[in-house]
Every structure is written in structure tokens, then in C-alpha cells.
Amino acid sequence: MKLYHDYKKLFKYLIILFLGIFIVVPVVFSYAQTIGELNAKISQKNTDIAKLEQEIKQYQNEIDSLGKQKSSLNTSIKQLDLTRKKLIADISITQSKIEKTNLKIKELSLQINDKQSVISNNLESLSLQIRKVNEFEQEDTLATLLSGKDFTLIWNDIDNIATVGEKIREATLQLKEIKVGLEDTRKETTDAKNELLSLKSKLADQKKIVDQNTTEKKKLLAQTKNSESSYQKLLKDRLAKKDTFEKELRDYESQLKYILDPSKLPNKGVLSWPVDYVYITQLFGVTKDSKRLYASGSHNGVDFRAPVGTPIKAMADGVIAGIGDTDKQCPGVSFGRFILIKYDNGLASTYGHLSLIKVYNGQKVSRGDVVGYSGNTGYSTGPHLHVSMYAKDAVNLKTLPSKSCPGRVLTQPIAPINAYLDPMYYLPRL
Hints:
Strands 1, 2, 3, 4, 5, 6, 7, 8, 9 and 12 form a ten-stranded antiparallel beta sheet that branches. This protein is of the alpha+beta class. Helices cover about 55% and strands about 15% of the residues. It folds into two domains: about 1-210, no CATH class; about 225-425, Glucose Permease (Domain IIA), CATH 2.70.70. α1 runs antiparallel to α3 (about 75-140), α2 runs antiparallel to α3 (about 75-140) and α3 (about 75-140) packs antiparallel against α6 (about 165-225).
């Protein structure tokens, strides 16, 4: 019976295929919990996360309110304390997301186990059908007829065997559907595990930023000896140094020769936002605030509201062309912690005032990659992200002696004045 042998070969193929699935997707969790119980726990985690988000929003409102007040030692200490509370709440959210993702992985593993059980049952059913065919083939049908055995029973056997092929085809189609579902669940599990790794990395970063916040508060108290007059003197000295540095930098950049070639620049709207929640606090060029805050009277970038610890993302594919911290050379006069990215599309950007840098020189980055976290380093009147934009071939990291900090050299991105571009032209429309 050729049909029988075809079924036998098919059965062997299915056994190899689905045993392979069992090997690739081992069940690694115990199944004391049901999917319903896991879903209830996931729902509770979502509730916890929502509560923490409300708490963070309240902290941020208080920080924003303090930022509108006149600078004082008391205000600065309150800002640092509130920022610490907010960061700790950020950590709690990340930990809740990690726990939620672990629950999701357990739930997916239960689903995998269920699908494997169905596959096993279907394979057993196929095995039974094959055995029936095998038994029928082994009998001498003519001898059975002459033996006097009830002809109705024999006819029923023949009729049953005639339906075996259809049953095997149906079972095979069902197995294929289950296999597709199993592969989808495996992909979800892999995605969840990747998300888990990302959350754990974010958690480690957040803890580092909390430690930096603690160090910053101790440093401020040590510098001022908890004296308001000492704090105001510190602010005055930093402002004077900042103005001096700005002038020397602008004088230097004004002397650089550069011919801007518009054909090398991309069209408008080619970049993505560097932050998830967009709130612009100062635009490029001459603005009301730029006249007050900058010696040149012009703001050379765009500022985004970004509480300390906000993830900062690459706006396009490119390469890290420089990282650094101007506070190590001359505190409070420039970018503080910064990243210079040269994009593949002819643009380049500097991210300034960061709390933490996540990339290294020469690293390739893709649009949307987290490259650092926002902060309040350098000359900054409050936590935010500063973005300067340039023609790619015009900006480089340079080291120059500093008049504002005599005896020190300052390393940061520098470009000719006419190479600065308005970031808003290349960012999405609001």
C-alpha cells in the first residue's frame, strides 16, 4: 500500500520537526501559577506604575515651580532634594517594569507549554491512525472474508481506513497552525527578554545618576558652607566666567573660515526628536532669553525641557565624533557633559548639560538609540537638554587655552559661526 508508506514517511517527518521545537523552546518556569493569576499580577504592576508616574509628575511640578524662583541656596538644595526623590521614583518604576516583564515571560512560557501539549496530543493521534493503517495492511483481506467473519465488521474497518487520510491531513494542518502560534510566542518571549535587559541597564544608569545628585549636593554645601552670601558669590563668579568664555569662543569661531554648501545639507524634517516628550524652552537665534542670558545676544541651539535622568536619543544614524565634560576643565561655563554626533545625512549635533554619557568615541549609533541622560551640568539655569546643530564637515572637537579659567585648556565642539544651523528646520513639525 503506497498510501500507507507515504503516511509513514510524513509521520516520521512530523516527529522530527516537532521534537526539534521541544528542544529549541525548553520550559524553564514552574507552572504553579495559572495564566489568570499572572495576568492579575501584571495588572497590579500596571496600577503601581501609574501611581508612581503621578508621584513623579508632582515632583516635576514642584521642581518647575522652584525653577521660576530667584536663585538661592535654599532653592537649589530643594531642587536637588526633589530631583533625588523623582529619580528614586524613576528607579521604582523601572523595577516594577522589570517585575512586570518577568511575569510576562512566565505567562508566555505557560502558553508555550500549552502549545507543546497540544502538539504532543496531535502527534499521538497521528500515531494511532498510522497504527490502524499498519494493522489493516498486515491482514490478508481475502482470508478474512473466507473465514466467516461478520462482513459488516470488515466493511466498517475498510470504511474507517478510508477516512484515515483525511484525518491525517486535518491533523497536519492543525499542527502547522500550532507551530506558527508557537513561533510567534517564542518571538514575543525573545522581545520580552531583550526589553528586560534594556530595563536592567536603565536601572543601573538611574542609580548612577542618583549617586551623582548626592555628590552634587555635598559639593554645593561644601563650596558655600551653607551660606547664602557664599552661594550668591559663587553664582556671580560663574556668570562672569561664562560671559568671558562665551566672548572668547565667539571671537575664535568668528575667525574660522568656512563656506557653507547648501547642496550638502538634507531637506527639512529629516531628524527625529531627541526626547520622547517634546517641550521647547528656548529656540535658536535671537530670542527674549538669548538677549538676557548670552553675551552674543544669540542662542546657538534649541533647549528642551528634560528633567534630570531623561533618556536622550540619537536623531538619525551616525557616529559619535566626541564626548567630554567641560566642568572638569572649567566648571560652570559651557556644555558640561556633552556628546558630538556626526550624522550620515550631512548634519552634526552637540547634546549639552548631560548627567550621564552612554556612548564612546567612534561608536556607530542608529536613530532612536539612547546615547545619554539629561542633566544640569555646565552653565545651566536648570535641568534641560541643549542641542546645537551644524554642517557636518564644519564642526570638530578642539582644545583651546581658556581666559575664563587661566591656566586651563577647554575641549569641546567648535565650528565657524556660519556653520551653526537651526535645529528646528530639520526636526519634525510640532
